[in-house]
Design goal:
Distance between the termini: 29 Å
Radius of gyration: 19 Å
Number of helices: 7
Organism: Thiomonas arsenitoxydans (strain DSM 22701 / CIP 110005 / 3As)
Largest sheet: 8 strands, mixed
Strand order of the largest sheet: 1-2-9-6-11-5-3-4
Number of domains: 1
InterPro entries: Kdo_hydroxlase
Structural class: alpha+beta
Helix content: 25-40%
Protein name: 3-deoxy-D-manno-oct-2-ulosonic acid (Kdo) hydroxylase
């Protein structure tokens, strides 16, 4: 697993090509991603057209969500503006999604054909000053887990690019390796109440069955965010992703907090742990090994 001072690995790529080229030499780095590293590409820019640069304003958001998301049906959610604005914004996000797909196909050939693209988004809202509950406060260290959307052990591979036109970095904190964090918090975990997953599903609080894995990951997410002493004193380091930088991470594994920044692209991919190069590094397997039991229902 990545040591804290070695979490960020920098690469020289300047192109999004799906196969290795002179401008895109990095490939076969699954072991680094699965080991808890953040793969950073300081010169891998997502270029906006002159017309698209008008979207570098928070007013393009409808104010109801922090993200403008591309839906599976090709429509976008969370945007304001005219029909032409929304069509161009959709095309911009779609182009980023395609480039992110090319990037991960090259970086992770072992995953090719096994990754599932989830939503892509554009984030024009400034991180600083957002009012939110402590559970939704992403300026606190956390691993990604979702109360309404159980993921059943599937990995969350995310590609980010900072678009900020004013020279502002995307500011993160990254925390200790997942196994070490888990050792600290495992004694605080409590099992789910029998039958609670069925009730949550029946009430449509969750979109699908909340497995034991999802239950424990959500507890880890919440207990970490609620522990202000841990937030302050836990092993961690600050990382600035300069404008034009692209970075790739398993966000269900790397402890992270978003401290500042504005204007960012994001694409999420899903990966079944069995398709990893080293499946034992998946949070599902680490949790199961610690607890000595299966956390997903039998297939």
């Amino acid at each position: 697993m990545a040591a804290l001072d070695d979490t960020i690995r920098n690469f020289p790529d300047t192109a999004w090509d799906a196969s290795p080229t002179e401008r895109a030499p990095t490939a076969g780095v699954e072991h680094l991603l699965e080991g808890g590293h953040v793969l950073c590409f300081p010169q891998l820019h997502f270029e906006l057209s002159a017309s698209e640069r008008r979207f570098l304003t928070p007013s393009i958001s409808d104010g109801k969500a922090k993200n403008i998301s591309l839906r599976d049906d090709g429509s976008i959610r969370g945007a304001s503006g005219s029909p032409q604005d929304q069509a161009e914004l959709r095309d911009m996000i779609q182009r980023f999604s395609h480039q992110a797909q090319s990037l991960v196909d090259r970086l992770f050939p072992h995953y090719r054909g096994k990754l599932r693209a989830a939503k892509a988004s554009y984030r024009p809202i400034q991180v600083e000053g957002r009012e939110t509950s402590w559970r939704k406060d992403d300026t606190r260290l956390h691993v990604d887990a979702f109360p309404s959307n159980p993921i059943h052990g599937v990995r969350l591979l995310r590609v980010f690019t900072n678009l900020n036109p004013e020279g502002r970095p995307r500011q993160w904190r990254v925390g200790e390796p997942f196994p070490e964090f888990l050792q600290r918090f495992a004694p605080r975990l409590t099992p789910p109440v029998p039958g609670s997953a069925a009730v949550l599903r029946a009430l449509k609080i969750t979109k699908s069955h909340r497995t034991d894995y999802d239950h424990y990951m959500l507890q880890l997410h919440d207990k970490m965010k609620a522990d202000l002493a841990y937030q302050k004193d836990a092993p961690q380091r600050s990382v600035d992703f300069a404008p034009g930088t692209t970075w790739v991470v398993f966000s269900d594994q790397v402890l992270h907090a978003v401290m500042g920044g504005q204007y960012m692209m994001e694409q999420t991919f899903y990966l079944e742990p069995r398709h990893q190069l080293y499946p034992h590094t998946a949070p599902l397997k680490v949790l199961e090994d610690l607890m000595g039991k299966a956390l997903l229902p039998a297939a």
